[in-house]
Design goal:
By secondary structure, this protein is mainly alpha-helical. It is built from 8 helices and 4 strands; from the N terminus they run ααββααααββαα. Helix 1 packs antiparallel against helix 3, helix 1 runs parallel beside helix 4 and helix 3 packs antiparallel against helix 4.
Length: about 260
């Protein structure tokens, strides 16, 4: 198969790069190349699988002939369901199986090369920071899969939030220009709060483009799914955010019926 040259990543970082590359290939099939992918999944053909490769390419093909295969195999027979459900639902189903296969491949490498408990946890956390294929295919990140959004600095309108965790009111997750305090604290304590906030959100990724949080960028949190987004990715400015009492991201607004 094209792009399936033997490749054995041995470190956590190498396995994660392999995961991201295969993920990019499957995302390409389900988003930018979806018409080609749809045509290749002819229900009249034999059992077909969707493969993602380390070179970020994809392929629809028959499963490997050897038993057991060199790597875990993707879901078998995705083409049979193509004409039996709405296209959007079928793509979402393929996306879910793609997510499961990517995890299987990643942890196959981890088991094969003896990752210990700490390495397995680190690998999972790195993977878990990325939106799933299902989230991208069915959500607001669909249009940002192929290109990273360049975000201009908003130092003068840097937003802060008192917590990423759930609070007693929806507004507590909403990025505001300042954090409500019980009383006026000294400037040095405020500076400490900002450092703690940057550390807290350092591992947060944009639910749309998948990029990391940065303190000089405006972010907003969805009150429904509680995912964070670059303001520019969801077309929300700091000024507009001040007038929104409860924010719903594009996925929660327009794709409520996409989840099974």
């Amino acid at each position: 198969m094209d792009g399936s040259q033997p490749y054995n990543p041995r470190t956590v970082e190498e396995v994660f790069r392999d995961f991201k590359s295969r993920r990019a290939g499957i995302l390409k099939a389900l988003t930018t190349d979806v018409e080609d992918f749809y045509q290749q999944c002819d229900p009249e053909k034999e059992n077909l699988c969707l493969y993602g490769f380390p070179n970020e390419q994809w392929e629809v093909n028959l499963p490997a002939e050897e038993v057991p295969p060199e790597l875990p195999e993707p879901a078998l027979g995705i083409n049979f369901a193509r004409d039996g459900m709405p296209e959007k639902d079928w793509l979402a189903l393929v996306a879910v199986h793609g997510d499961a296969w990517l995890l299987a491949v990643a942890f196959y490498f981890g088991a094969r090369f003896g990752f210990d408990k700490a390495d397995r946890k680190r690998l999972f956390n790195m993977i878990n920071d990325l939106p799933t294929i299902f989230e991208v295919v069915s959500g607001a990140a669909k249009k940002q899969v192929k290109e990273k959004t360049s975000v201009s600095n908003h130092s003068s309108s840097k937003s802060k939030s008192n917590s990423k965790a759930k609070g007693p009111e929806p507004q507590t997750k909403f990025p505001k220009a300042s954090v409500p305090k019980e009383d006026d604290d000294e400037d040095d304590e405020e500076g400490l709060d900002e450092e703690e906030e940057d550390e807290e959100h350092g591992d947060t990724l944009c639910g749309s483009c998948g990029e990391n949080y940065a303190s000089d960028e405006f972010w907003i949190c969805c009150d429904v799914c509680e995912k964070w987004f670059h303001g520019q990715c969801v077309k929300i400015t700091p000024a507009r955010a001040e007038h929104i009492k409860q924010y719903k991201c594009p996925a929660c607004t327009t794709n409520k019926r996409s989840r099974p």
